[in-house]
């Protein structure tokens, strides 16, 4: 089934999980998806796009009960804004070499699992006790870095 950035009305109403891999134009136009209309959507995985610097800027376009987010292989991703993702339970960040820091606001209080791999700038900032972002993540029960 194919979707374009303008086909928000074509999304299945009971959609629970979406994986978007290698779709540069689709990721770049995520503000037009209309995914906020799908309360069943709980997992979003964004993989590979060298054109995307911050895929979550348009928070209003994502569903409220979002519980798991996976972001992989976005070589130009510089920042990650998680404000408003209050139901986020799991966060996976992998192969984002330009990702410099986590959200300026605190992470969701219910975040249970954080996985950071091949994100060298972020990994340094998240080092236990010494990293600049450690205070932001220290309350997460399950943390895997590296």
TrEMBL record:
Spell out the InterPro entries in the cross-references: LRR_dom_sf
SUPFAM superfamilies from the xrefs? L domain-like
Q: Which domain of life is it from?
A: Eukaryota
Name assigned to this protein? LEUCINE-RICH REPEAT-CONTAINING
UniProt lineage: Eukaryota, Viridiplantae, Streptophyta, Embryophyta, Tracheophyta
